[in-house]
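Q: I have 254 residues here and want to know how they pack in 3D. Can you give me a structure?
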Amino acid sequence: MSEIILETSDLSKNLGALLAVSGASLQFKRGEVHAILGPNGAGKTTLINLLPGDLKPSGGSIRFRDEEITGLPPNRISQAGIGRSYQKTNIFPHFTCFENCWLAAQSRRSSSMRFFRAARRLKDVEARTRRALDLCGLMARSETVASAMSYGEQRQLEIGMMLATEPELLLLDEPLAGMGTEESQQVIELLRRLSENHTLILIEHDMNAVFAIADRLTVMVNGAVLETGTVDQIRNSPAVQEAYPGVDESEEAA
């Protein structure tokens, strides 16, 4: 089995007259936490939108587990084993935690639209749902309506919904956005646990969190990849420091 789980080759995306991603060639290794950094407008979110099929590339290719996935629709890519969370919480607020995760787990079945069968008779779907709730730390809140939970718990639930699809690779777009210190620490610990059995690719502006959990970093500027390396390599890179002032000043989270 290749150590490279996801690879992009000369990946590009035009948004009107703007070249939002320009010739990005990257390799993401199995079992690593790989963070994508860069100032606003660097192309980070566009890149992470290309990987699960939310945007179609203007050029280049994407390979997942040595299979070409360029241009496939998001549902096919999800079923292949890539999960995705978004900057804005993407849950069903009037459903319970269990119901939210059950709907996500159901999407992995080839017959996902057969709603006439009783949900809890689908043993494999229920098992995925309970595993996801356990992994994201919300088993005790399984019957709580999502809208009644704190913002941090709702972000955990979104991660739980992603886990219910049983992905091998997790794409996380600013998972700590809008959180206070205590909630951020809880999600950081959740990401640490998930990294034991999953590959994580994340965008995050909290440098302390990034340096605490990432194995490798990619820095983007003006749509292009500037440099990829370990945390120490990126922190000590003159090119990165010039393009992204302050990246060398963050200290690891306690």
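Q: Anything worth noting?
A: The chain has two domains: 1-81+169-254, 90-166. The mean pLDDT is 89.
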